[in-house]
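input
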Amino acid sequence: MPPPGGRRAVTQKQIAAVVTWTLEITPKYSARWSTRAMASEMGLSQSTVSGIWRAFGL
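output
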């Protein structure tokens, strides 16, 4: 558990899942993922998903 006010660590498995889903799975009700939809699906924050996408050029 992270310290109060500390950053929560995102695992390599979570990062891989976000990248894989972004590239290989089309969401049900849209042509592409939004950060909000992906965050909800993965149990992450919208800013975390945004950071992952930015880091991988997605």
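quick obs: Residues 22 and 45 are 15 Å apart (CA to CA).
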